[in-house]
Write a structure and sequence with these properties.
Number of strands: 14
Largest sheet: 7 strands, mixed
Number of helices: 11
Bound molecules: 5-S-methyl-1-O-phosphono-5-thio-D-ribulose
Oligomer: single chain
CATH superfamily of the largest domain: Translation initiation factor eif-2b, domain 2
CATH class of the largest domain: Alpha Beta
CATH topology of the largest domain: Rossmann fold
CATH architecture of the largest domain: 3-Layer(aba) Sandwich
Distance between the termini: 47 Å
Radius of gyration: 21 Å
Length: 367
């Protein structure tokens, strides 16, 4: 697959396709997501993953569910208040259902509420005029496309803003995958690395393998090799050594939800990298599109951390079990990096610095 064909969420001819990331790097297969249940499953098992890509997929999922529900119930041309009311309730139910697939990345509930809010708004803005379920379906299709396009554009701004912090030839450490595979565009934390490659920056990137689901090994190293970036795969417990050897000039990572005080949840292991970076005096940059900033969550302690099956730790990627059957496991998918370890937050609107309780308010236009 060529780099330009890596499109994790593809909507084409009224059909939704997902690049199944559970099969990468061995197979790069797309499959059709036919309904909300298929999408719930795709998000849950990480066929589609990465906060912005989950949000984009959820937008399309809400649209195809509403479209098919209206068609199957023969209510497309209906405009009476009862039918419209029932249709809006169904849209809200789909929002709540999709939100239940994964709790940490705020882009999911951000996107589903944008979709549900769009449907409500159509009815409200119509005033006394007749609207039909088909009008609502059309507005949802447009909104899903807007969410995708906004994320695509945001990736370019993140790339430019991120590149302004980096210098040619730098050694850069990243954790998990915050790249093309995680967004509708260039990525977030990997965006400046792709752009730098196009501009001849010659970065030397170290990718943490990212236990237990190996997003760094399976996805980041695959994606960066496709774009020609010099990437070296390391195990998570090697980060301190490469930092101590002076091979790392900056750390770049993504984010799943940033609280109002600047604490940022990202893939499990991120906070350890941040603490190491501070110890070695290396800048730690978190890439956070505004769709990932949750001003209604005061601090990182208020972020719900997803816990996943223990089998992901002891068996999933191995031919043989790597631990005794029945061993107790603890498998949190994310951790929270305290804001005091984050040198700067890169958004599509600009780079912000501490104090984050002030700078986040400013960038989010809150008083
Ligand atoms: O469990 P995942 O693979 O969905 O976790 C993804 C991450 O932690 C990413 O760093 C984050 O979503 C930002 S992606 C631009």
């Amino acid at each position: 697959m060529a780099i330009e064909d890596i499109i994790p969420v593809r909507f084409q001819d009224e059909k939704l396709y997902i690049l199944d990331q559970t099969k990468l790097p061995e197979h790069d297969d797309f499959y059709e997501v036919k309904n909300a249940e298929d999408l719930w499953d795709a998000i849950k098992r990480l066929a589609v993953r990465g906060a912005p890509a989950i949000g984009v997929a959820a937008g399309y999922g809400m649209y195809i569910h509403a479209r098919d529900y209206a068609c199957e119930h023969g209510i497309e041309d209906a405009g009476d208040p009862d039918t419209i009311g029932t249709f809006l309730e169904e849209i809200d139910r789909t929002r709540d259902y999709l939100d239940s697939s994964r709790p940490t990345a705020v882009n999911l509930s951000w996107a589903t509420e944008l979709m549900a809010g769009t449907a409500r708004q159509i009815r409200e803005s119509a005033g006394g005029k007749n609207i039909t379920c088909a009008d609502i379906v059309k507005a949802l299709g447009d909104k899903a496309e807007d969410i995708r396009k906004a994320d695509y554009d945001s990736c370019y701004s993140l790339a430019e803003n991120g590149l302004s912090l980096l210098k040619p030839g730098m050694g850069i450490l990243t954790h998990c995958n915050a790249g093309i595979l995680a967004t509708a565009g260039y990525g977030t934390a990997l965006a400046p690395l792709h752009l730098g490659q196009e501009r001849g920056y010659g970065f030397k990137v170290f990718a943490d393998e990212t236990r237990p689901l190996l997003q760094g090994a399976r996805l980041t190293s695959w994606e960066l090799m496709k774009s020609g970036v010099d990437v070296t795969l390391i195990c998570d417990n090697m980060a301190s050594l490469v930092m101590k050897k002076g091979l790392i000039d900056a750390v770049v990572v993504g984010c799943d939800r940033m609280a109002a005080n600047g604490d940022g949840a990202n893939k499990i292991g991120t906070s350890a990298v941040a603490i190491l970076a501070k110890e070695y005096g290396i800048p730690f940059y978190m890439f956070v599109p505004t769709s990932t900033i949750d001003m209604d969550t005061p601090t990182g302690d208020d972020i719900v951390i997803e816990e996943r099956e223990g089998s992901e730790i002891y068996r999933m990627w191995y031919e043989h079990p790597m631990a005794p059957e029945g061993v107790k496991t603890f498998n949190p998918a994310f951790d929270v990096t305290d804001h005091r370890y984050i040198t700067a937050v890169v958004t599509e609107k600009g780079v912000i610095r501490p104090p984050y309780d002030v700078s986040l308010k400013e960038i989010m236009g809150r008083k």
